[in-house]
Design goal:
single chain; alpha+beta
Length: about 110
């Protein structure tokens, strides 16, 4: 992660500014874009990057932000807790999403 971006909110603002990233939500075993109501299955997405955050006051205050890109070009963000409080259904969904490789980033 970039050293200038240490907080969840900083990364969210950066993704919105650089990639026009929209907010995704996990509903009924799919991701839904809150702004466009598009729905995505794991095979419709590519995981661009995952960012982990740990709260300053408590190591239990952990979260993960996933930056995802749909095959149709919609860029989005999904936030989940990390560790004990994570949503196991989100974790299972994300495991099925292909990860962008370094070679793909260079194309």
């Amino acid at each position: 992660m970039n050293n200038e971006m240490n907080t969840l909110s900083q990364v969210m603002v950066s993704l919105k500014n650089k990639h026009c990233a929209k907010d995704f939500a996990f509903e009924n075993k799919k991701l839904v874009c809150k702004e466009t109501n598009e729905t995505f299955d794991p095979e419709d997405l590519i995981l661009e990057k995952a960012y982990r955050f740990e709260g300053d006051s408590s190591p239990d205050d952990m979260s993960v932000l996933y930056h995802l890109m749909s095959t149709g070009g919609t860029s989005g963000m999904l936030i989940d807790a990390f560790g004990t409080y994570s949503n196991p259904k989100i974790a299972e969904f994300i495991k099925l999403v292909p990860v962008r490789t370094l070679d793909e980033n260079q194309q």
